[in-house]
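Need residues for this backbone.
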């Protein structure tokens, strides 16, 4: 591969600062704020993408003073910043930080917030543009917008915008997602709502569209004529850690599938949009969700596998079973793993299986989309020592060790015809350097610019829940009897292997992310 990179963007569009605004973070004392939002803002500021007329208003129930909030923000930078943070930036940020302690359910909190925001506008020139970020427990996702609306803090005018970022989980099933959409749209328009999915903030996820549509060579092959099947893996080696309380209600299906995994499937399978306009892209994504073949109860039993991790080992360390984790019921039937086979009923994808899997405490961390091309006909090699032809794999490694690799067969040098598999491998870090990111930079920035392309629209969220609804119903009706059914540190339950074996395939069990993987 060549080792130079040409960029087609201009220096102007690399340095475009967002316009004046105040970022109001509800849940400012929480984990998300310190681990992701503050480090992301730091990265944005260092890249000169934040406006000078900018302020952060933290809102939370903790009775912190302004100084305490500043201290917490500095601690968050010390602990979680992905890059070195200059003292100039700390000072710049410190001058723009405000804190308001209050109960999210009390109208009085929003009256005080309104007064504070007027002061902030006067002091920082934020022009009445407010980006409200719901970094709270989901139980506040309807309450806070309703209160904001009553306080007039969602009212837009010609020269003034008001937007709301809603974190995940957006509902816990189709009905609750529909209800939340209704509540939100009762107090603001769809164009003001930004439903976040942090996967869309990942460079490599955004690159799927660039890779598919900015290159002439792949798209003509991107269909059922040439592709045998697709495997999408989001494997985590960590367990539930401290999040047992949340995870007990969510489980692997809700936690990962209708959001992150479905983003990956739609970006992989969608038709080319006519532009990068938010609705043009999202229209194509939602078509894929609607085209997923509905799962009947029988198909859930056959095509969907659930698992829960038991005890296991990683080197000398003993890994606890899910049922022994903090805040987890010792009899819990919550799945920590799910795999499934889906079909997309379109001309492009008819009869091409999409195998998805995600789980915790697996043998390695790897998020990837692997496209397996069809085997070529064999006749040419009949009278040679070659006994079979391996299919080509195109693998987009989304994290870690981000990159793209294409495997193909090549003649092994020598007097006889033998074939070896070789990889053509592109690593992001080799070409673009390491750019540590939280994934939230681009999302915050795009929201400030008013571009919703990387956010989920109401119909996408609902279509995603509709796809998994039959699974949720079938699982509610039948409790698993075999949990735990995979060892921590393994690649998941045997049933997931059987799911692919039925079709004559195997999961790509990547041992380590950069090592070559088994053929399927
Ligand atoms: C979150 C899930 O949305 O995504 C977590 O709630 C999961 O359970 C995480 O660990 C995975 O994100 P990433 O960026 O680490 O792949």
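Answer:
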């Amino acid at each position: 591969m060549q080792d130079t990179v040409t960029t087609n963007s201009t220096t102007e569009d690399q340095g475009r600062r967002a316009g004046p605004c105040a970022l109001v973070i509800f849940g400012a004392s929480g984990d998300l704020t310190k681990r992701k939002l503050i480090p992301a803002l730091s990265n944005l500021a260092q890249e000169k993408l934040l406006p000078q007329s900018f302020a952060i208003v933290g809102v939370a129930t903790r009775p912190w003073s302004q100084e305490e909030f500043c201290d917490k923000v500095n601690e968050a930078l010390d602990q979680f910043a992905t890059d070195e943070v200059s003292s100039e930036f700390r000072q710049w940020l410190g001058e723009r930080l405000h804190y308001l302690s209050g109960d999210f359910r009390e109208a009085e909190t929003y009256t005080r917030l309104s007064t504070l925001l007027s002061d902030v506008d006067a002091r920082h020139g934020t022009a009445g543009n407010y980006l409200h970020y719901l970094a709270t427990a989901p139980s506040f996702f309807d309450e806070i917008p309703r209160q904001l609306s009553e306080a007039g803090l969602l009212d837009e005018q010609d020269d003034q915008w008001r937007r709301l970022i809603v974190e995940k989980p957006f509902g816990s099933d189709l009905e609750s997602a529909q209800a939340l959409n209704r509540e939100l749209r009762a107090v603001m328009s769809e164009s003001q709502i930004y439903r976040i999915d942090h996967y869309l903030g990942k460079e490599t996820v955004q690159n799927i569209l660039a890779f598919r549509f900015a290159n002439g060579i792949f798209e003509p092959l991107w269909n059922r004529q040439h592709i045998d099947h697709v495997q999408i893996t989001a494997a985590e080696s960590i367990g539930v850690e401290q999040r047992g309380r949340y995870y007990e209600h969510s489980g692997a299906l809700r936690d990962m599938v209708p959001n992150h995994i479905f983003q990956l499937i739609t970006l992989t399978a969608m038709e080319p949009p006519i532009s990068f306009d938010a609705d043009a892209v999202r229209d194509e994504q939602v078509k894929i969700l609607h085209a997923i073949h509905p799962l009947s109860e029988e198909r859930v039993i056959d095509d969907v596998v659930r698992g829960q991790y038991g005890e296991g080992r990683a080197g000398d360390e003993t890994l606890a079973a899910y049922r022994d984790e903090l805040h987890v019921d010792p009899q819990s039937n919550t799945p920590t793993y799910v795999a499934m086979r889906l079909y997309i009923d379109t001309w492009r994808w008819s009869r091409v299986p999409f195998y998805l899997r995600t789980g915790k405490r697996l043998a390695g961390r790897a998020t990837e989309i692997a496209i397996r091309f069809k085997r070529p006909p064999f006749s040419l090699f009949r009278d040679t020592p070659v006994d079979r032809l391996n299919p080509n794999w195109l693998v987009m490694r989304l994290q870690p060790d981000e990159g793209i690799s294409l495997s193909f067969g090549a003649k092994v040098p020598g007097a006889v015809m033998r074939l070896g598999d070789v990889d053509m491998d592109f690593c992001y870090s080799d070409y673009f350097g390491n750019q540590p990111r939280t994934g939230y930079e681009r999302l915050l920035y795009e929201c400030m610019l008013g571009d919703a392309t990387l956010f989920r629209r109401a119909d996408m969220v609902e279509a995603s829940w509709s796809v998994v609804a039959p699974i949720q119903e079938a699982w509610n009706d039948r409790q698993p009897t075999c949990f735990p059914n995979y060892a921590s540190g393994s690649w998941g339950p045997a049933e997931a292997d059987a799911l692919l074996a039925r079709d004559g395939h195997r999961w790509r069990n990547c041992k380590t992310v950069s090592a070559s993987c088994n053929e399927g």
